[in-house]
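Risk register update: the risk of archive-format incompatibility is retired. Evidence:
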Amino acid sequence: MWRVETNLPVRLAVIKIHSVTVSDERTAFEQFKACAERYRARYGDQPVSAVPGVEHSRKLFHAIGQDPTKRRPSSEALLHRALKGKTLNPINTLVDVGNWCSLDFLLPICIYDADRIAGAVEVRLGRSGESFVGHNDQVMQMENRYVIADGQGPIGSPITDSQRTAVTLATKNVFLCIFAPGDYQRLQLQAHSETLAQRTLLYCSGWVLESGLL
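Archived output:
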């Protein structure tokens, strides 16, 4: 179901979970907010670059010649908001879990409504002219950037994801993906994957259909 171009310097954790229940309940958001407050308490007077772990997502972007300070990895964007004390907004239980884990691990996490995905999924570099409308309502130009794509084109990236495959309160089946650089420790990434799955099941129920590292 998933394919990764062999020349990409990435390591991925992929999880497919069925029969989730997505709601507006805020317990997962409160965990996300508490995680942000811990970062701010410890590193709020320091630059983002001083936080241990932020180098992993930056390395992921540098490996394909992209400047991570111009279009930040989603995990670093969350960290930046946390350190600045900017407002964090609840979305829904599943997205809140994803944001919490992304900030906790300092790695980009992508979350998709599996029933909105058209055909097989691949992780590759964006092609000339490829774009999508992101959760930020911006048209994201994806040429030579990491993309996750289905049969209709890009559905997301380690920067932001597409509105086309966004999780809603009606979502029942999901794909989750953690991005890491190619030399990231497999055991550490596996631990992150298990934590993401456990937190998803705790706050959204469901059952894990498949999971693995790519």
